[in-house]
Amino acid sequence: VRCVSSGSVDVKVPLNFWAGKRQTSPETCNKEHVYEPATGRVLCHLEPCGAVEVDQAVKAAESAFGHWSKLSGMERAKIMIEAARIIERRREEIAEMEVVNNGKSITEARLDVDSARLCIEYYAALASTLAGQHVQLAGGSFAYTRREPLGVCVGIGAWNYPFQIASWKSAPALACGNSMVFKPSPVTPVTAVMLAEIYAAAGAPEGLLNVVQGGQETGSLLCHHPDVAKVSFTGSVATGKKIMEMASKGVKPVTLELGGKSPLLIFQDSDLENAVRGALMANFLSQGQVCSNGTRVFVQKDILPEFVEEVVKRTRAIQIGDPLLESTRMGALVNRPHLEKVLSFVDQAKKEGATVLCGGEAFVPSDPKLRGGYYMTPCVLGDCTDEMSCVKEEIFGPVMSVLSFETEEEVLLRANDTTMGLAAGVFTRDVRRAHRVVEHLKAGSCFINNYNITPVEVPFGGFKMSGIGRENGQVTVEYYSQLKTVFVEMGDVDSLF
Ligand SMILES: NC(=O)c1ccc[n+]([C@@H]2O[C@H](COP(=O)([O-])OP(=O)(O)OC[C@H]3O[C@@H](n4cnc5c(N)ncnc54)[C@H](O)[C@@H]3O)[C@@H](O)[C@H]2O)c1
Ligand SMILES: C[N+](C)(C)CCCC=O
């Protein structure tokens, strides 16, 4: 039974959280509106945190670190598993709030909550496996390494996967013994604080996961804070560069999960049905607002007409509307300025000679309560060329650019001709071609005969300007811990003096 409906929710509770409880910021004069994308109503007000609140949150995290970092992996895992159980029980409620704040369909929001839970379960399982090495040295002496946490880590998130991003960052951080202060995007402040509350309810020490709200000023205070040991950021390339610069002042390590303009290569020997499904998954999840989207769809010339016909037919059939309805497959874009930006990309594409094969227009649902929402019809652009802005720039909306190619060599050159390298995909039945192509693609996540799947057991992250470091998978432990080497002398000191 649905607890909420679009247009019916007002979030009145404070959205900041530190030292184990929700906190109000005294900065009432700086309150900002937060909108419900499905209706355009004001959903709540954001109370941005200033230097005092950021400091309180970091202090709370420091205090929790003192206790948490001394627990065994098994003890940490117990609390994380309890948090995962609470998420499982509250799945529908969290997914509904994600929909209300972000605009994506409830079907997708549920999968995002599942991914968040699985990530916590995965790192809980890894927590007790963290260990160092024993190295035998001459004369019976030896050295060993201890894998130690970093301290207070900062997470800064984008608005497209608010709960999932908060979980993907906090789960490995906490499993390694760190504490965290997380700042969600000011556009989607509602669900990260639910995660902080869930950890507290699961028995985490006060201050283990804290949430401070705000935009770039708050983010910048966090990056510059002297007691912060690491910054993990998800967002645009432009902001990522600033984060790296700020972190460099304190020589703090960064994880950067940035933007993309990923290619999807469809060869003529593909299973066409799967290739079409893959192209839709590569472009229209979360209203196209996905970093890893394969928005440059290169199709081998001989199958182009067939492919385009099928993709356009299925794109036209995508059910747009109230994101809380089970039948909806595409909800609203995140806000009005972003919708306008995406629509202007479509206009620009037309001016540059692309053909709109379907969609690309603002959409007004028939339900009166949704009329102020930020909807558009998903768009397929044909006759695209490599120089067009729709092919060069990250649009971050439901706009697929279709390009034609003839040879493998040619398409690889064109696919790699970008400053970004988050993801890439190839559809072919030729197993040798598939691996050969993937070897040459300059991207952090490559998909063969699928697209946009992100199981939490495997690393995710970008090459080139799409980022530094990885999230998920075992390797992420490396990004949230450091090695201490201990030399143990069993004989006498062999002094040169
Ligand atoms: N690679 C990934 O995993 C991934 C995932 C999701 C989104 N993204 C990327 O995120 C972008 C869209 O998200 P967005 O519009 O929220 O990005 P954004 O860069 O505008 O903002 C991201 C976050 O950074 C904060 N911020 C902005 N300026 C800051 C500053 N000077 N100092 C500190 N913090 C600052 C924002 O408040 C927000 O919380 C796209 O480019 C998308 O590709 C990447
Ligand atoms: C759509 N996925 C597969 C969940 C990826 C989300 C990560 C980036 O936006």
TrEMBL record:
<dbReference type="InterPro" id="IPR015590">
    <property type="entry name" value="Aldehyde_DH_dom"/>
</dbReference>
<dbReference type="GO" id="GO:0047105">
    <property type="term" value="F:4-trimethylammoniobutyraldehyde dehydrogenase activity"/>
</dbReference>
<comment type="similarity">
    <text>Belongs to the aldehyde dehydrogenase family.</text>
</comment>
<keyword id="KW-0963">Cytoplasm</keyword>
<dbReference type="InterPro" id="IPR016161">
    <property type="entry name" value="Ald_DH/histidinol_DH"/>
</dbReference>
<dbReference type="GO" id="GO:0005829">
    <property type="term" value="C:cytosol"/>
</dbReference>
<dbReference type="InterPro" id="IPR016162">
    <property type="entry name" value="Ald_DH_N"/>
</dbReference>
<comment type="subunit">
    <text>Homotetramer.</text>
</comment>
<protein>
    <recommendedName>
        <fullName>Aldehyde dehydrogenase domain-containing protein</fullName>
    </recommendedName>
</protein>
<comment type="function">
    <text>Converts gamma-trimethylaminobutyraldehyde into gamma-butyrobetaine with high efficiency (in vitro). Can catalyze the irreversible oxidation of a broad range of aldehydes to the corresponding acids in an NAD-dependent reaction, but with low efficiency.</text>
</comment>
<keyword id="KW-0560">Oxidoreductase</keyword>
<dbReference type="InterPro" id="IPR029510">
    <property type="entry name" value="Ald_DH_CS_GLU"/>
</dbReference>
<feature type="active site">
    <location>
        <position position="257"/>
    </location>
</feature>
<feature type="domain" description="Aldehyde dehydrogenase">
    <location>
        <begin position="30"/>
        <end position="486"/>
    </location>
</feature>
<dbReference type="Pfam" id="PF00171">
    <property type="entry name" value="Aldedh"/>
</dbReference>
<comment type="pathway">
    <text>Amine and polyamine biosynthesis; carnitine biosynthesis.</text>
</comment>
<keyword id="KW-0732">Signal</keyword>
<dbReference type="InterPro" id="IPR016160">
    <property type="entry name" value="Ald_DH_CS_CYS"/>
</dbReference>
<dbReference type="GO" id="GO:0004029">
    <property type="term" value="F:aldehyde dehydrogenase (NAD+) activity"/>
</dbReference>
<dbReference type="InterPro" id="IPR016163">
    <property type="entry name" value="Ald_DH_C"/>
</dbReference>
<keyword id="KW-0520">NAD</keyword>
